[in-house]
Amino acid sequence: MQETNENQIIKTIGEHGEEIYMKLQEIVNVGGKDYALLSIVEEDTLPTSDNDESDELIIMKMNKSEEECTFEIIEDDDEFNFVAQAITDSDEIEED
After folding, report:
1. pLDDT bracket for residue 3 (50, 70, 90)
2. Positive or negative CA dihedral for 76, 82, 88, 91?
3. Distance (Å, whole) CA 33 – CA 53
């Protein structure tokens, strides 16, 4: 269910036009779709942002094409809850 990744920092634009930096924590596949687990990184900790102060993870749907990979907010509550539960269940299995 989980893939390895490199410490990638992603810059995106927020709802109000502000720049937001996020660290790609993990990529998970749930129901045949890829989702990214991201955490917000403060700009002053870049580029060596191994600092995981934020406990909050953001789950976003990944859309891959040959040229690029984009991230999309999961607007469907049922889909979000399904993915969050699958991640939680997976974490509990790994801890055993």
Report:
1. very low
2. negative
3. 28
Least Cα distance to 61 among 81, 36, 80 occurs for 36
List, for residues 75-95, the tens digit of each pLDDT value: 999 999 999 999 888 766 665
Q: Spell out the long-range contacts of 9-15 with Cβ–Cβ below 8 A and sequence spacing 24 or more.
A: 9/41, 9/46, 9/47, 9/49, 10/38, 10/71, 12/71
Structure tokens, 95: 């801890």
Q: How much is the pLDDT for 44?
A: 58
Q: Which two tokens stand for residue 85?
A: 């539960």
| Residue 11, burial from CB neighbour count under 10 angstroms (0-12, 13-18, 19+) | exposed
